C-alpha cells in the first residue's frame, strides 16, 4: 500500500498531531527517514509542532518544519497518529490541498477521513503500523530507533494491553537493527527533569478521589505551570501515575492551555471506556487513554467529566457538591 502511494508521488509531506507525543514523533520521523533512505529521488518534508527535548536525539528532528509556506502543495500528504484532520493543527492546509491523502492511525475514534486509510484501533501505536507498511530489510538503524521510540511510548514500555504479540515481534526486529533499546526507554520515558518531578508531586498531592475512590482527578493551572517553569510538554506521565492508584478505574488530569481552557487527559482500567467520554466532549483517543479540550474553570470541567465517567460506573453514587 505504502509503496504504491509513494511510487505515484514526487513530493510528500508527513504531518502528525498537535502537541506531539512519543508515538507521533516516532512514527513521523521513522517514516520520514525511511522515505529519505529508500526513496531517495522523492522530495519529503515533515511538519510537526515543537517536540519534547527528549526526542531530539533523533537527528532528523532538526529537519522538522514548524510552519507552512503559503501556496505550497504536495502530491501526497501522509497524516500519522491523528484521529481526525483537525488534530493536524498548523499543517491542516497542506492536508487539504494535497493531491492525495493517506492516514495511518490507531485511534478507535478515527472516521477514515483521508483518501486512503490504514486504521487499526487494536494496534499498539502508529509506529507499529508504519513498521508494518515498510520493507523490513530496508529499515536502517536510525529508522528503527524512531519506530521503537513510538512503540515504547504508546505501550508504556510494553506494559499496556495494546502491546500484542505482533508488537513484541516488531520490537524484536527493530532491536536487531542495532539500536540501544534500554537507553531509548531510560532517556525518553523514565528520566524526568527536577521541575517535571516537582509538578508530578504537586499534581499527586492536590489530587482528589471521587466516585467512592474509583475515580481520581487533579489539575494544574497556567499560573502553577509558570511557577514551576514547565510547559505542556513536561506533563507526560502524570495522568498515568494517577491511574495506578489502587482501586481507581478512571483518572483525569487537566492543565490550562489558555485562561479557562483546559486540556483533559483521561486514563482508565478495564471498566471505563474513556474514548467515549472524550468523544462526547469533542475529543478522541483509545478505550484506556483519551483526551479533549474544554472551556471553563477547572471545577466545572472536572464536574462535567466526572458525570460522564459516573455513567459508566453505574453502581457508584456521584455526590453532589
Ligand atoms: P494524552 O492524554 O496523552 O494527551 O492523549 C491520550 C490519547 O488521546 C492520545 O491517543 C491522543 O491522541 C488522544 N487525544 C488527546 N487529546 C485529544 C484531543 O483533543 N482530540 C482528539 N481527537 N484526541 C485526543
Ligand atoms: Mn499513538
UniProtKB/TrEMBL annotation:
Pfam families recorded: DHH, DHHA1
DDH domain ranges (all copies): 12-151
One Gene Ontology molecular-function label: nucleic acid binding
InterPro entries xref list: DDH_dom, DHH_sf, DHHA1_dom, Oligoribo/pAp-PDE_c-di-AMP_PDE
Segments forming domain DHHA1: 227-308
Gene3D superfamilies: 3.10.310.30, inorganic pyrophosphatase (n-terminal core)
Protein name per the record: DHHA1 domain protein
Top-level taxon: Bacteria
Amino acid at each position: 500500500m505504502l509503496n504504491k502511494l509513494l511510487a505515484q508521488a514526487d513530493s510528500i509531506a508527513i504531518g502528525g498531531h498537535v502537541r506531539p507525543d512519543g508515538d507521533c514523533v516516532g512514527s513521523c520521523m521513522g517514516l520520514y527517514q525511511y522515505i529519505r533512505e529508500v526513496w531517495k529521488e522523492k522530495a519529503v518534508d515533515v511538519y510537526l509542532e515543537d517536540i519534547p527535548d527528549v526526542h531530539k536525539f533523533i537527528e532528523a528532528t532538526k529537519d522538522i518544519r514548524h510552519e507552512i509556506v503559503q501556496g505550497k502543495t504536495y502530491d501526497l500528504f501522509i497524516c500519522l497518529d491523528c484521529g481526525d484532520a483537525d488534530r493536524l493543527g498548523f499543517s491542516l492546509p497542506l492536508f487539504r490541498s494535497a493531491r492525495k491523502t493517506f492516514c495511518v492511525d490507531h485511534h478507535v475514534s478515527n472516521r477514515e477521513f483521508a483518501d486512503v486509510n490504514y486504521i487499526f484501533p487494536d494496534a499498539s501505536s502508529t509506529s507499529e503500523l508504519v513498521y508494518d507498511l515498510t520493507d523490513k530489510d530496508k529499515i536502517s538503524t536510525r529508522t528503527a530507533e524512531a519506530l521503537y521510540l513510538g512503540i515504547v511510548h504508546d505501550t508504556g514500555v510494553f506494559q499496556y494491553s495494546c502491546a500484542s504479540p505482533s508488537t513484541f515481534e516488531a520490537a524484536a526486529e527493530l532491536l536487531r537493527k542495532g539500536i540501544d533499546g534500554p537507553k531509548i526507554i531510560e532517556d525518553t520515558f523514565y528520566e524526568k527533569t527536577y521541575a517535571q518531578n516537582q509538578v508530578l508531586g504537586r499534581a499527586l498531592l492536590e489530587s482528589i478521589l471521587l466516585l467512592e475512590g474509583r475515580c481520581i482527578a487533579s489539575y494544574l493551572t497556567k499560573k502553577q505551570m509558570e511557577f514551576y517553569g514547565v510547559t505542556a510538554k513536561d506533563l507526560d506521565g502524570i495522568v498515568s501515575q494517577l491511574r495506578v492508584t489502587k482501586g481507581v478505574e478512571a483518572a483525569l488530569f487537566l492543565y490550562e492551555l489558555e485562561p479557562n481552557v483546559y486540556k483533559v487527559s483521561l486514563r482508565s482500567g478495564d471498566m471505563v471506556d474513556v474514548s467515549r467520554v472524550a468523544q462526547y466532549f469533542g475529543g478522541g483517543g483509545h478505550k484506556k487513554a483519551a483526551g479533549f479540550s474544554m472551556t471553563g474553570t477547572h471545577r466545572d470541567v472536572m464536574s462535567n467529566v466526572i458525570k460522564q465517567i459516573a455513567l459508566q460506573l453505574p453502581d457508584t453514587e456521584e455526590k453532589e457538591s
